[in-house]
From TrEMBL:
It catalyses: N(6)-[(R)-dihydrolipoyl]-L-lysyl-[protein] + NAD(+) = N(6)-[(R)-lipoyl]-L-lysyl-[protein] + NADH + H(+). Coiled coil: none annotated. Residues 6-338 form the FAD/NAD(P)-binding domain. This is Dihydrolipoyl dehydrogenase. It comes from Variovorax robiniae. Its cofactor is FAD.
């Protein structure tokens, strides 16, 4: 079988992979991208976990469920009467699927526009050859391709509970959680991470009784403690039952649902019977079927591909990006690494600053942050000063009818350089970008405090929090 020759082959069409392919093509390389994800009809569905069973569909359901909750609980405050409110879960899921397909089709269009050759199938290493690497593509028909450079962007898979594998009917990963056909009466989540809280929020809004079982003694341990406490207060008020310091025991799945044995923080044995269980205890790097051993690709003890600071593997001209390597498992981190690698292949100086990668949890209230938390700075022994401003004192938040939460700035005590910005409240997923830009430019809290922000806007809370660092807020 004659190999088709390329300068760059990207394995995986998720955020890291398709962006790397497009950027490499923009830089003049002959590029191929291989992705095996299939839609319901067996056709190509590039975009990876993010587009198909992650970021995009979850946001679609979050938006739909938020509309439903607003119509049922909040429209009356605006003088809007709703009678006979109903719920069509099938239509909600169909809308979600449409949003996913639009994104799939958009990526295929971008490949065509940028002259990236797309192969629908699973790529695996065959051998090294005189041009670099030969790969086998197992799809509708088996093909062989060769490339000087290979970028691995194969993503990650959901981690299952020991002894309780995913069946995607009763015990669900993020995939099954997005396909529940009707509102479960009782729903449990193991893990209070991003996926758990977002999916818990969706089904709680639609009427499920939701219990979250979290092994850690603290809620959202990676989030600034003050922000996490504020978020938990809001979730408690909404009726999301969150149990901390839990040890999960035997999980049994049957015709009537799932039975979970667990021990609470006091060491007391408990039992919880639910219709569905969503497991959100992290993700594991995906190298299944890659056949890296054929060429000597090195993995670490977690199963992640070992890379250096430039995303180079132990093999010449083989690179890896995104969830399959070290660092945060975030779509936008994967994108930045994909661009950086394409530019490095071209001899440019691609750059990713892990200190300014933003994090967002799309619950209501939303949670967003960038940089260091107050507890991290305390552990470092670094002198800092902090300022907060509540959305309760923000005019636009009052007009929206959503005054939950706050913005928090942390700056160096001596230089005033912004070290971290943390938010919980309305639309903070959008507000956090200002903080990312400021930190990239090594801005001080004073810089943000001196910049004119539109009135009335939620962004004024950002300005006021920066003013609060110097104890001179104007509206609180």
């Amino acid at each position: 079988m004659q190999s088709k020759q390329f300068d760059v082959v990207v394995i995986g069409g998720g955020p890291g992979g398709y962006i790397a392919a497009i950027r490499a093509a923009q830089l003049g390389f002959n590029v191929a991208c291989v992705d095996e994800w299939k839609n319901g009809k067996g056709g190509p569905a590039p975009g990876g976990t993010c587009t198909n069973v992650g970021c995009i569909p979850s946001k679609a359901l979050l938006q739909s469920s938020e509309h439903y909750e607003h119509a049922g609980k909040h429209f009356a405050d605006h003088g809007i009467k709703v009678e006979g409110l109903g719920l069509d879960v099938a239509k909600m899921l169909a809308r979600k699927d449409t949003v996913v397909k639009q994104n799939n089709d958009g990526i295929l269009y971008l490949f065509k526009k940028n002259k990236v050759t797309f192969f629908h199938g699973r790529a695996s290493f065959s051998k090294t050859d005189e041009t670099g690497y030969e790969l086998k593509v197992a799809g509708a028909a088996e093909e062989s391709i060769s490339a000087k450079h290979v970028i691995i962007a194969t993503g990650s898979n959901a981690r299952a509970l020991p002894g309780a594998p995913f069946d995607e009917e009763n015990i669900l990963s993020n995939d099954g959680a997005l396909r529940i056909g009707g509102v479960p009466k009782k729903l449990a989540l193991v893990g209070s991470g991003v996926i758990g809280l977002e999916m818990g929020s969706v089904w709680r809004r639609l009427g499920a009784e939701v219990t979250v079982l979290e092994a850690l003694p603290t809620f959202l341990g990676a989030v600034d403690e003050q922000i996490a406490k504020e978020a938990k207060k809001a979730f408690d008020k909404q009726g999301l039952k969150i149990e901390l310091g839990v040890k999960v025991g035997e999980v049994k799945s049957g015709k009537k649902g799932v039975s979970i044995a667990w021990t609470n923080a006091k060491g007391e044995d408990q039992k919880l019977d639910v219709d569905k269980l969503i497991v959100s205890i992290g993700r594991v790097p995906n190298t299944i079927g890659l056949n890296g051993e054929a060429v000597g690709l090195k993995l670490d003890e977690r199963g992640a591909i070992v890379v250096d600071d430039d995303c180079k593997t132990n093999l010449p001209n083989v690179w890896a990006v995104g969830d399959v390597v070290r660092g945060p498992m975030l779509a936008h981190k994967a994108e930045e690494e994909g661009v950086a690698v394409a530019e490095r292949i071209a001899g440019q100086h691609g750059h990713v600053n892990f200190n300014t990668v933003p994090w967002v949890i799309y619950t209501s209230p939303e949670i967003a942050w960038v940089g260091q938390t107050e507890q991290q700075l305390k552990a470092e022994g670094r002198a800092y000063k902090a300022g907060t401003f509540p959305f309760l004192a923000n005019g636009r938040a009052r007009a929206l009818g959503d005054t939950t939460g706050m913005v928090k700035f942390i700056a160096d005590a001596a230089t005033d350089e912004i070290l971290g910005v943390h938010m919980v409240g309305p639309q903070v997923s959008e507000l956090i970008s200002e903080a990312v830009v400021a930190m990239e430019f090594k801005a001080s809290a004073e810089d943000i405090a001196r910049i004119c922000h539109a009135h009335p806007s939620l962004s004024e809370a950002t300005k006021e929090a920066a003013l609060a660092v110097d104890k001179r807020t104007l509206n609180f």
